[in-house]
Design goal:
The complex is a heterodimer of chains A (109) and B (271). Chain A is of the alpha+beta class and 109 residues long. Chain A is 51% helix and 15% strand. Chain A has one domain. Chain B has 271 residues and is an alpha/beta fold. The interface between A and B is medium-sized, with 17 and 18 residues.
Chain lengths: 109, 271
């Protein structure tokens, strides 16, 4: 159908809503699929990372953050562990600067 | 070799029980030995839709807990000899059903029937997970509507992770049954089309059941729609879907209701 035909037709028909529904679903589900299926995995990782770290260093369980993000080609696993600075180190200005930001495990290890 | 099929959807009210009754009856009409099992503990309705509500003595929980034998609880359909119903309990709590009990009942049903069709409760909790737990394949019932499609996507995720088959590394066969479909509205862009839903859910299509007054008419009198009016549009769609389940290659179409003068005059009132 040509565009003139569509214009005339649109005078008599309401705007299609199905394409809106389809687009909303596609966006929503691509997000939900990436998060919902990882909920169990993240909880398990959180538990096991905590256990592994607790053997060697004293940490606050609430200061271990694990996130998984699905990008276009790869998934990104992010583990943030905040390690308290021992009391003896506190006067150091460098240490206090670092302690104000969570460290990545890579740096902490 | 029996096939255990779960009819599931996530969302309530999309036609799981109607579809369980219709597919079960359609398979039995084709000569298969069929047991339909209601897993909706506390809110049973498959007995009512199949017209057997006054014949329920023992139920799934009684058998699962060893309080009754399977033979005592199975209700043979009065219209088709090869169709049987195992009702859900109406009075017990849903927690009365154990995974072990369900495994045993399904195992026993497997030995006696060609098809065991499990009618899942709505939701994604324990009841729905028990209904799908020992299934070989699933029929995902969805309406062409955003909330139903979203919930179907969740259920597909559960089928691929929480079933025994999936946990053992097997492939869970899943089929989409699109119900309450209105081809005219989809054509005008007022309703998600078959193609839209298939593209979003990406599982194979088992059938398209058109929106029809016949479905309510059949449940009013307690008869699966394929038995109540086998030539009606939804009945033909269910009969085709049942043939596809049996491996037949049936061309996909959306059966249409042909309205005659009588239907036009009285159809609306009768429904």
């Amino acid at each position: 159908m040509n565009s003139l035909g569509m214009n005339i037709l649109s005078l008599f028909t309401r705007k299609s809503t199905a394409p809106v529904a389809r687009e909303r679903l596609q966006i929503l589900l691509s997000h939900e699929r990436s998060t919902s299926c990882n909920v169990g995995l993240i909880a398990l990782l959180q538990k096991e990372v905590l256990e592994a770290l607790a053997k060697h260093i004293e940490i606050d369980p609430d200061k271990v953050q694990i996130k998984m993000e699905r990008r276009k080609d790869v998934s990104l696993l992010e583990i943030d562990v905040e390690i308290p600075i021992p009391a003896t180190d506190k006067p150091s200005s460098v240490a206090s600067k670092i302690s104000s930001r969570p460290r990545r495990t890579g740096q902490a290890a | 070799m029996a096939e255990v099929l779960v009819v599931t959807s996530g969302k309530g009210g999309v036609g799981k029980t109607t579809s369980t009754a219709a597919l079960g009856a359609a398979l039995a009409q084709a000569g298969q030995k069929v047991a339909v099992v209601d897993f909706d503990v506390g809110l049973r309705n498959l007995d009512l839709v199949m017209g057997a509500e006054r014949r329920v003595v023992y139920d799934l929980i009684n058998v699962a807990n060893g309080e009754a034998r399977l033979n005592q609880a199975l209700i043979r359909d009065k219209r088709i000899d090869t169709l049987h119903l195992l009702a859900a309990s109406q009075t017990r709590d849903k927690d009365a059903l154990t995974e072990e009990g369900v495994r045993r009942v399904i195992g026993e049903l497997r030995e006696r029937f060609d098809w065991v069709i499990c009618d899942s409760p709505a939701g994604i909790e324990r009841g729905a997970q028990l209904a799908m737990r020992y299934a070989d394949l699933a029929v995902v019932v969805a309406n062409p509507e955003v909330s139903s499609v979203r919930d179907s996507d969740r259920i597909i995720g559960l089928l691929d992770s929480k079933t025994e088959r999936a946990e053992n590394g097997g492939h869970m066969e899943k089929h989409l049954l699109l119900t309450r479909y209105d081809a005219a509205r989809a054509g005008r862009g007022e309703m998600l089309s078959v193609e839209d839903v298939l593209e979003i859910l990406s599982i194979p299509l088992l059938g398209i059941i058109p929106e029809s007054e016949e479905v309510l008419r059949a449940s009013n009198v307690g008869s699966p729609v394929t038995l109540n009016n086998a030539t009606s549009a939804p009945a033909r769609a269910y009969l085709d879907a049942a043939r596809r389940l049996c491996g037949e290659d049936v061309p996909m179409s959306i059966p249409m209701q042909k309205k005659n003068l009588f239907d036009r005059l009285f159809g609306r009132r009768a429904a």
